[in-house]
Amino acid sequence: MSLAVRARRVLLPDGERAATVHTAEGRITAVTAFDDAPSGVVTLAGDEVLLPGLVDSHVHVNEPGRTEWEGFASATRAAAAGGVTTVVDMPLNSIPPTTTVEALRVKRAAAEGQVAVDVAFWGGAVPGDLDQLRPLHEAGVVGFKCFLLDSGVPEFPPLDDAGLRAALTELAGLDALLIAHAEDPDVIAGAPPPAGASYPAFLASRPPVAEETAIGGLLAAARDTGARVHVVHLADADALPLLRRARAEGVRVTVETCPHYLTFAAEEVPDGATSFKCCPPIRESWHREALWAALADGDVDLVVSDHSPCTPELKRLDVGDFGLAWGGIASLQVALPAVWTGARARGLELAQVVPWMSAAPARLAGLPGKGAIAVGKDADLVAFAPEEPWRVAELLHRNPVTPYAGRELTGVVRRTWLRGEQTGGAPRGRLLSRGGSGPTRPVPE
Ligand SMILES: [Zn+2]
Predict the structure, then answer these.
(1) Span from the CA of 121 to the centroid of ligand 1 (angstroms)
(2) What spacing in Å lies between the alpha carbon of 21 and ligand 1's midpoint?
(3) Ligand 1 center from residue 93 Cα (angstroms)
(4) Full pLDDT tens readout for the chain, 445 residues
(5) How far does the centroid of ligand 1 lie from the alpha carbon of residue 68, in Å?
(6) Contact 21, 42 (CB under 8 A)
(7) CATH of domain 53-369+389-404
């Protein structure tokens, strides 16, 4: 059974054109002219664009251990519905956290057989697990996540500067990537604590300089060790000059931002609306606009969801207290339409936006079989109607709380194919290792 799909608009690595995408055994075998199509070809509707399946390298699945927050079945169904064909699971919020090979085995066992899209795994770098980094790397994690301040869960403690440097020295020897939650604990300890329903008070409790200080320390450690680092969920546009300068000096650093920092602004968050609580926080609109500009200029590399849901109870919607509520935003299923809606309003093209959410995160996570419509890649495809408006209602996330609820977005994912088969039936996602070894290794040219 070999899928072929054609459309008047196909998003290819070198731009957009009419084409037929041919596949065999789950991989793309040829990209030809629109009219060069086999019988049985699927022809997209006139308002649909064929996109590569998206890669979301920042998803907290939380299973096992906190499966009531989110689980592999629900998260990956939501991913498929949102055009995401590969998710990379974060090492924390599940119990155990993915800080040992045994914990990775437990997590893979939990995921096996119930994932609707392909799933790869980050390892964790926490104090005292230096000797676990190499075995985890060899076991196939795509890189390592660390926190530079309290993570919110006790079983995943942060690294101090000495711990960060020790981890980076070890990872430099493996040429493995460290991704970091960069907020500085001392800056935050010196800020007024969050309490009550006031969003401005929450914002003041996590000031931008906390990001700049932590990023500065990370960049210095990367420079000194030669390791590769990545800043997750940048919210503070004032940190961009630091990052630009470090890159110009040859520091190996990349940076991501998230749909919520590109969609919302602090001025618009209602008091008590803890569905908007995340860390670092959604900042004032000028940060948002500067992040958009930095994406367009190539100073921010990618956009991934940081899907981090919890139960409605933990969001403390009953009291709307930003000090008590869990910080994390659920958005896996709406990431593409949310980002596209913002991009479209700013005059950006789909061909600019989609690589931020496909090719760039695939590169970050070292998954060469993913993230583009090209010969040899997995036949992960999405039929997207970029001009269709809709209002966010029922999502397939395990828990319904999201700041996107009721929001008008533009752009609908109509169909998703994973390795040549439409999603929505029995779960047939695979568990991937770094490099996409095994089933996702690209065929030789
Ligand atoms: Zn996260």
Answers:
(1) 13
(2) 34
(3) 9
(4) 699 999 999 999 999 999 999 999 999 999 999 999 999 999 999 999 999 999 999 999 999 999 998 999 999 999 999 999 999 999 999 999 999 999 999 999 999 999 999 999 999 999 999 999 999 999 999 999 999 999 999 999 999 999 999 999 999 999 999 999 999 999 999 999 998 999 999 999 999 999 999 999 999 999 999 999 999 999 999 999 999 999 999 999 999 999 999 999 999 999 999 999 999 999 999 999 999 999 999 999 999 999 998 888 888 988 999 999 999 999 999 999 999 999 999 999 999 999 999 999 999 999 999 999 999 999 999 999 999 999 999 899 988 889 999 999 999 999 999 999 999 999 999 999 999 754 433 333 3
(5) 17
(6) no
(7) 3.20.20.140
Q: Give me ligand 1 centre to Cα 308, in Å.
A: 6
Distance 35 CA to ligand 1 centre (A): 44
Which structure tokens are listed for 298? 């190539």
Q: Tell me how far the alpha carbon of residue 226 lies from the centroid of ligand 1, in angstroms.
A: 25
Residue 383 C-alpha to ligand 1 middle, in angstroms? Answer: 28
Cα 306 to ligand 1 centre (Å): 5
Q: Counting runs of H as helices and runs of E as strands, what totals does the chain give? A: 13, 17
Ligand 1: distance of its center to the CA of 5 in Å?
A: 35
How many whole angstroms from 441 Cα to the centroid of ligand 1? Answer: 27
CA of 282 from ligand 1 middle (Å) equals 14
Q: Could you tell me which of 74, 70, 142, 72 has the C-alpha nearest to residue 113?
A: 72
Beta carbons within 10 angstroms of residue 200's beta carbon? 12
Cα end-to-end distance, the chain, whole Å: 22
Residue for token digits 């403690």? 157
So where are the chain's domains? 53-369+389-404
What is the Cα–Cα distance from 274 to 329, expressed in whole angstroms? 9
- Residues paired with 28 in a beta bridge: 23
